[in-house]
Write a structure and sequence with these properties.
The protein is α+β, with helices and mostly antiparallel strands. Helix content is 50%, strand content 14%. The strands form 2 sheets. Strands 1-8-3-4 form a 4-stranded antiparallel sheet, with no helix packed on it. It is elongated, with a radius of gyration of 32 Å.
Length: 257
Amino acid sequence: MALTYKQQVESYVGTVTDVDVLSQYLTVSARRIVDLIPTAKAQQYAVLLTVDALGSDTTNMRVLEVTGGGYSARQVPHGMLAQIADNDSIFKAVTKDPIFYTDTNKLYVSPSGTDRMLSIPYPVVLSSDSDILSGVTEYDEALTLGAAIQVRSKNIEDARSALPASIGFLDVTNELTQLNTSLATDQDIELAVGWIQDIQVRIAEYSAKLTNIASDMQKAVHTINILQLSMASLEKRYQEVLALQFGIQFGGRNDSK
């Protein structure tokens, strides 16, 4: 039985308790993989959809090819819409040379007719899933590494947020005022000694607080260092997998991260 994606991610980062967040990370990672699959290979996972005359939503899919009335449609930028509608323009869209364009996550074909688009829906991945493309597992390592990196990044963020933003200051103003009053005004040595003892207690408590904070900070920094090393290792392997499967080069040459 295939391991679930949660189990695969946990093999990199340890136990993950928030399965809903993990599912979100997996979905983000899957979207990137779908975008990276070479077009020729991606077609085997694609579905043919009808393009509505009023435009079709493409928010959750990768569009591979568009046809208008059975003819291949070419994509044009928004700035050419006036030209493709102009009967006197050489860029005029015609039945045998249709065009398509996108506007606010909607795809339109001109001239409108029997229009189709070949696309891959972006999968919504659950942590309990074990495949994203109808049993295809060749992208599982890239998928789970991408999610694992997001988990580790959140781990580092949480560890950093645990560091104290401030430690406060020791304020013995009141005690010093009372001490001075005892000596200068009341001339009460016994009362003054009491205030001195109070100040000593406050200083000792503050010193203990600083010691505890310093210890906690040292532990947090150590944890962050370990997490960062783990992150670097995951990113290195992720880059290796993307280079192997999709030809993406890193190290300043063609880093698509």
